[in-house]
Amino acid sequence: MTYSTRTLLVFLATSALYLQSAAASVLPFSSVEEPLAEQRYRFIDRFAADEQNQVSRQDFLNAWQQRFTALSDFAAGKISEEVFVAFEMTELEQQLLNAREAHIRQTLNRFNALDRDNDGNISWEEYQASGQRIFDRFDTNQNGVVAVGDPDPAPRRRAQSNTQTDNERRRVRSLLAMPTTHNNQGFLTMFATDDKQQVSWQDFEQQRRSVYDRTDVNGDGLVSRGEYLDEFMSRVARREQEVRQTHKELAQHVFRQMDQAQQGWLSKKDFVAYGLAVFQLWDTTNEQQISEAQPLPEQEPQLQLAVRQP
Fold first, then answer.
1. Cα–Cα distance between 28 and 63 in angstroms, integer?
2. Is the Cβ–Cβ distance between 80 and 262 less than 8 Å?
3. Does residue 188 lie within any of the structural domains?
4. Fewer CB near the terminus (10 Å): N or C of the chain?
5. Using an 8 Å Cβ cutoff, are 23 and 67 in contact?
6. What average pLDDT score do residues 148-173 get?
7. Per-residue pLDDT tens for 12-31?
8. Is residue 36 part of a domain?
């Protein structure tokens, strides 16, 4: 399988490599897709020294070499592909746990918002009223249909503290990001069926009713807190499996990229050369530092070529 630089840069953004623990992952790419600007933001946020808004080549290199030391300790000998992948998958599980816990908190908050009478259940009327509010928000021209080309609804305003920094206000995609209805495209992706380019209120309500009935496992006509949580977390579990598979495949690919001599194990020289090649992909102006003021990468050459010509 061939991965373009853009695909591999995606692998850079949310890898545990950027966690501050000494035992963090060494993968330079993320297993989830997100805009390049967000990936670079993650890179700067994790590697910037003393809360600066840029990452120097030396700061990156110091952190990258620390990751090699952590990986070497984990391997207790030569770093084979099997050991490398095992190290990555071990670190991934902690990230998945954190993302899963965040989903549980958010799901319970959504339940509480839907349970308007606070009786510990969501009735069909409460669920339907929520659906009506969602549909009305996206039906921006008020014709009873949400279609491709309709204007996006006005963004919801979030309260912000005067003490928040720009980094604290910024939102980045979760490792277990689920489909959302933040814009017209997201709404149609979730609810348009049979390749339709639009969703009527009737179609929307029918799908919502199907979800409600499926979630009401005991068939009592109400969705309890446990039923609501179980339904959503079952979808999160399926997403976890997808992330694990992608992460494993990319870990294998990165190892083979690093192992330039094809000897079946990693040397520090190969490891450092690969890290510097990754840094160079972000340093689009060759300033020996990375900041959000720089242009994003525009082309998608194979990263392996960049490694061979650091």
1. 12
2. no
3. no
4. N
5. no
6. 60
7. 333 433 333 333 455 545 55
8. yes
